[in-house]
Amino acid sequence: MFVTLNPRILHFSKLHPLSRPSSYFYRTRNVSLTTNCKLQKPENGNQRSSSSGSLTKTISLSDSAPPVTEETGMEISGDRVVKGGGDGGGGGGGGDGRGLGFLKKLPRKVLSVLSNLPLAITEMFTIAALMALGTVIEQGETPDFYFQKYPEDNPVFGFFTWRWIFTLGLDHMYSAPIFLGMLALLAASLMACTYTTQIPLVKVARRWSFMKSDEAIKKQEFADTLPRASIQDLGMILMGDGYEVFMKGPSLYAFKGLAGRFAPIGVHIAMLLIMVGGTLSATGSFRGSVTVPQGLNFVMGDVLAPVGFFSIPTDAFNTEVHVNRFTMDYYDSGEVSQFHSDISLRDLNGKEVLRKTISVNDPLRYGGVTVYQTDWSFSALQVTKDGEGPFNLAMAPIKINGDKKLYGTFLPVGDTNAPNVKGISMLARDLQSIVVYDLEGKFAGIRRPNSKLPIEINGMKIVIEDAIGSTGLELKTDPGVPVVYAGFGALMLTTCISYLSHSQIWALQNGTTLVVGGRTNRAKNLFPDDMNRLLDQVPELINKNTSVVSEQS
Amino acid sequence: MIFSILEHILTHISFSVVSIVLTIFFLTLLVNLDEIIGFFDSSDKGIIITFFGITGLLFTRWIYSGHFPLSNLYESLIFLSWSFSIIHMVSYFNKKQQNHLNAITAPSAIFIQGFATSGLLNKMPQSAILVPALQSQWLMMHVSMMILGYGALLCGSLLSIALLVITFRKVGPTFWKKNIKKKFLLNELFSFDVLYYINERNSILLQQNINFSFSRNYYRYQLIQQLDFWSFRIISLGFIFLTVGILSGAVWANETWGSYWNWDPKETWAFITWTIFAIYLHIKTNRNVRGINSAIVASIGFLLIWICYFGVNLLGIGLHSYGSFTSN
């Protein structure tokens, strides 16, 4: 009954793992009898010898459907073209409206231009060069900066002045029209290339075909002729090596690593996904940062500012954020190891909906809003003087060279209305230790907050009760993240799969001689070795009759 | 204390073994082939010893610093030479196919190792503390993938450079040796590839001194084909690592800095490198283009990796300033 199936193809399913020696095969094949059938003579069977024509084979039909025929695919695309009337997706099929002929040709022309590989390479080069330029030219400075750095009377490289920068928008390269335009062009090229080049390639690769002449097989990158060998043995051995094997009469077609052909399409689609996600992020997100002293609160919506045109606020924006506590961890050497902010979220009714201690690398997510711990600051110092107080002294940031932060405050002593007020100065680099200077500005000592250890300055007892830090939070909503992450995942996966080689092998039984040819698309240098290794395993038929007898027994 | 002693010992073992390997490579240039076949074997073994030395070194650092040893430039350099020795070992154990990777990896490993251990980076070897942003599991994934990617891409692009050198070198058989020596002084990295090529060719010439010029051209052609193929395979592999590295970095950045892409100089340069090698892979898909064109792109990529890896750190700009020369 299998013989009557329309494409008379025997598809060997992977029932037998094929690391066994080939002699074992004969046995296995006879034991696991599924169907015995006689092959019908194909139309071009005149080359076949009588011995191979009467071979009895054990076959098993695979469940996997044969590849989609090309005709249906073409019809579908043809239909769309007729209906859409040149909507840019015109792939094939003859249209009927003559007035639309030009419109139909134009997209095809555009497609062919866009899918041009040299153009795509030029685009990539341009984008790379623009990005490099963006790291060389300072970004986001004031116009005055560029006037000074790139003056007109002394241009860099003899021509490059600030006029160039402002005309091309190089001071904000990564949002400049020229850069975004190149990216859009690259995206168009990606789509065009996928549509016009990659998909047809896969279609060709999927539409497996048998080669019917020795010459065609010998033309392949790898070709070999085995004098006394059977095509069935070769099929089994190829199957064991992970090939999908198809056989029809004296011809064999086998392939492996078809995913390696699909994957580049996946890479392109993943790139497009990332670009779409990036566009979503750029047009639909909100951002904002805030520095909140410990114990205070703010409303998310007040901090978040729209970034693009499509930024739509959500209900979560009404949430109130309360900073319960802000702490810092230190290494033994005194350097900061981590920041923690204990945060409560309260809805409109004042009910706590979420509480979490966030730190760098561990943000809080609620209703599409992400709260990051990014910065810190010194808010105030609680001090008692001779048992009075406590006073809250606001700490002011003091700008010094370098990245390290320094905060200072001043406790006036005596008449505060006097023209030159004297007082105690206190400086701190972090919340850990406060350096105290006396009225003359001389070093008086270092105290830790909470230590309750008084310091005596000019007869006054000063106790530093507490150091109140403020946490630097960054808030963000980004609708693009899921899309971008999907793109990331797809890109990682497909790039890895792209490393696979798609290998194809054809073989033709010609009498007792077996002609084998094959090609691969990536590991070209390794392919002949692999092939030779596989062909070495093919058993040599010592005598025609014995081999036939052994198979029939 | 015991850790730092152990670390010193391991550093010196790996460095000295690598220098011995390099000396062997030097010797092969001067001495006849009959004596160096054994030498070549021992150089492979030397690299294996180096590999274990560096592995031990990295583990020691890991244990006593308490975090994955990839937090500053010194550690990343050590890791880079470690990945070079991995690539070398892979090519050593994969004897099935003769390739020329070990001619690239051994000298690269010693240069990196030497640079890391030398006094140039005075304060670098001290294990630094981790700033808050680096305290994440992503550190392991991101940085190791990036460095592995850099290592593989450097190897691949060096093979491409070797291809270019061999293609454009048109010298007669009588004075090639002199020429090589001159070139050796000019650029050591280049010449190692050529050196290997010379050895290769030398052996062939000795074996069959029938037709000098014919065999020379034939083997030259074969060598170019092989270099082309191997640089393609290695770059494809490195490209995978680079992709995974950049993307995991982006995910990490979204957890830490609040955005998956910040156009930070380091990020941008990594992306530029990625783009260049993407171009390389695209050129490779076109069968009509000769290997030279893609090799030129790959050698541009070689420069870009160094700009990305070192240049940006040298300036110490942007968010990736942990590994800069000045940060300590």
Write the layout of secondary structure elements.
The complex is a heterodimer of chains A (553) and B (328).
Chain A: E1 10-12, H1 22-31, E2 35-38, H2 50-53, E3 56-59, H3 70-84, H4 101-114, H5 117-136, H6 143-149, H7 162-168, H8 177-206, H9 214-218, E4 222-226, H10 231-240, E5 244-248, E6 251-256, H11 259-284, E7 286-293, E8 297-299, H12 300-303, E9 305-306, E10 320-330, E11 336-346, E12 352-359, E13 364-366, E14 369-385, E15 388-394, E16 396-397, E17 407-413, E18 422-428, E19 434-437, E20 443-447, E21 455-457, E22 460-477, H13 481-498, E23 503-510, E24 513-520, H14 527-537, H15 544-552
Antiparallel strand pairs in A: 1-5, 2-3, 4-24, 5-6, 6-23, 7-9, 7-22, 8-10, 10-11, 11-12, 13-14, 14-15, 14-22, 16-17, 17-18, 18-19, 19-20, 21-22, 23-24
Chain B: H1 2-30, H2 33-65, H3 73-93, H4 101-117, H5 138-168, H6 176-186, H7 188-207, H8 212-256, H9 265-285, H10 291-315
Helix pairs in contact in B: 1-2, 1-4, 2-3, 3-4, 3-5, 4-5, 4-7, 5-7, 5-8, 5-10, 6-7, 7-8, 8-9, 9-10
Function (chain B): Required during biogenesis of c-type cytochromes (cytochrome c6 and cytochrome f) at the step of heme attachment.
Transmembrane segments (chain B): 12-33, 45-64, 76-94, 141-168, 230-253, 268-283, 295-319
GO biological process, one term (chain B): cytochrome complex assembly
